[in-house]
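$ run holo --ligand "flavin-adenine dinucleotide" --emit C-alpha cells
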Amino acid sequence: EKYMVIGAGILGASTGYHLAKKGADVTIIDRNDPGQATEAAAGIVCPWLSQRRNKKWYRLVKGGAKYYPELIQMLKEDGEQETGYRRVGAISLHTDDKKLDQMVERALKRREDAPEIGEVTRLTPEETKKHFPPLADGYGSVHVSGAARVDGRALKESLLNAARKSGATFVQGDASLAFDNNEVTGVKVNGKTIRGQVLMTTGAWAKPLLEPLGIEFLVSAQKAQIVHLELTNTDTSKWPVVMPPNNQYMLSFGGGRIVAGATHEDDVGFDNRPTAGGMHYIFDKALEIAPGLYDSTLVETRVGFRPFTPGFLPVFGEVPNIDGLLVANGLGASGLTSGPYLGAELARLALGEETELDPADYDVAEAIRTVE
Ligand code: FAD
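-- output --
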C-alpha cells in the first residue's frame, strides 16, 4: 500500500520519516506556504514547568520531550548530523522567592514520573546572570537541566532527508483530496492523482482540504511574530532557554544568535507581515528582562501561524465516517515539542500498530462539524 502525507512541517516530516523507516511506500507533499509554523518556531523543549492543568495535553508534550534524545540518535545513525537539537537546560525567572520555591516544588513533583527533567536547581540572581549575561539584575531562577532547544528548520530538513534515504518521495505542490463518496482514495497534486492512504498534517491551512467532503474542520491560525538578534563575539551556543515571568521567552543558538518572542494574534488571517506593533510588543518585554540585548543586531524577523483546534488540545486519528484518511493537527504553541512524537504515533496508527497515546483522548470528532 501507498501512503501520502500532505503537509511537511514538523508533524508531516516526522510522520513521513517514521513511515519510511518502517519500510512503507511514502510520498510527502508540501506547498511551502509562507508562515509555516515549523519554520518560524522558537524551539523550546521544556514542557514540565507549564501550569496548564490539561492532563491529555501534558501527556502529549511530556512524551514529546522524552522522545527527542531517541529520535536524534536515530537520525544520527541515518547520517543526519545537523538536527539543530541541543540539551542546554532552561532557567525559569522570577523576582519573588516564594514563586521560585513553588516552581522548584512543581518541577520536583513532575520529575517523579519524568526523570528526563534532569537536575532541578535554585539559582541566585548572580548565578542566574552567569548563565545568561544580558539579563537585568535581580532575577533569581530555577534551572532545569533536561530542557532543550531545537532549530525547527534544521530538524525538519533532517527528517525529510532521512525519509528520502529510506525511500520516501518528496513532491512540492498544492494538494487536494481525491475521494469517492465517503472514501478518500488519494491525493490530487500538480495535475496528477496518486492513489493511496492519506495522512493530513496541514497545520493552520487544513480547513479547505476537507470542505469538498462536507466537513468543516475547526482549526484556527494564530499569528506569531518573533525576532532573531545577534550579539557579536559572544559564544551563545550553550546558553540556556530563558523563561521570564511573563508569556515571553528567549533562547540562544550558536554564533551569537538570540531568539526572542513572540506575539499571539488571533483573527488576523494569513497576514504574514512583521508589524511595528508586533516588534514593539516583543522588544518592550525582551529588553526589560534582558537590557544587555539593547545593542544586539536585529538580523531577522519571522512570522508563523500556530494551528489551534478546539480546547487548545491537539487531535489525531480517523475522521468520523470517512475512510482512507488520517488527520493530525492543533499542535498550537508547543508543536516543536510534541510534533516529532505525534508524527511517530500517527505513523504507527497508519500501519495498524499500537500507539502509546489513546487516539480517543485526541478525538478528531472534536474538531469537525458536518455541513449539510
Ligand atoms: P506547519 O509547520 O505549519 O506545517 C504545515 C505545512 O502544511 C505547511 O508547510 C503548509 O505549506 C503545508 N500545507 C498546508 N496545506 C497544504 C496543501 N493543501 N498542500 C500541500 N501542503 C500544504 N513549539 C514548541 O514546542 N516550542 C517553541 O518554542 C515554539 N515556538 C514557536 C514560535 C512561533 C513564532 C511559532 C509560530 C510557533 C512556535 N511553536 C513552538 C509551535 C510549533 O512551531 C507548531 O506547533 C508546529 O510547528 C506545527 O507544526 P505543523 O507541522 O502542524 O504545521
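-- notes --
The first helix runs from residue 10 to 21.
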